Amino acid sequence: PPRPPPPGREEEGGGGGGGISPCTTRTYIRKKSLSLASILIAILFLAGCGDGTPKPDGFPDLVSCVITITQDGTPLAGAMVSLIPTDGAPDWVAAGLTDSSGNATIRTYATANGAPKGQYRVAVSKTETQQSQFPRPSNDRDLAAMAVWYDQVAGENLRTHEFVAAQYRSRDNSPLELEITGPTRQTFDVGAAVHEEVRQVN
User: Fold this and answer.
1) What are the start-end ranges of the E strands in the chain?
2) Could you tell me the pTM of the whole model?
3) How confident is the model at residue 158, as a pLDDT?
């Protein structure tokens, strides 16, 4: 089964205090060009494909899973929530994006609602990037146009900021744990907001 790309090597500093406040901490990630395949996966995840999409061999049974993320008690919108297996099970890439109420409906393999039963570490990340001068293509499924747009945006060196503390966004060390044995609804709080610059380097 496909697995998510390994996260970029990061050099992380301390988090911020209460509320969103400027931090001198910067997170550095290695700049990588996006392949057409990775663009397609992102498009499928955001646009959604029906459960009728063909599944690979060994695809597990799924159960509904909704994760609610709060930040200092307030629903956090626009955060990516990823489930990382900790019980040795295959990683089928179960993730979701929170809505205005902080709720993320988990999808697996970017095509099917729900998550496999098992034990997970939960990683949460929310980033915002400066507005690009290049307009996004109107048709997300036009892969050639999307590839050109991604290359244009990558060349702008736009500033991106992370708003979730490093400990909660770590796929290896996040303290958030989840066991899925059936239909699941769970709330996690990720503490005070931070404002860390994510600077791309060659």
Assistant:
1) 26-30, 65-71, 74-75, 80-85, 94-97, 103-105, 107-108, 112-113, 118-125, 127-129, 160-162, 177-180, 184-189, 196-201
2) 0.66
3) 75
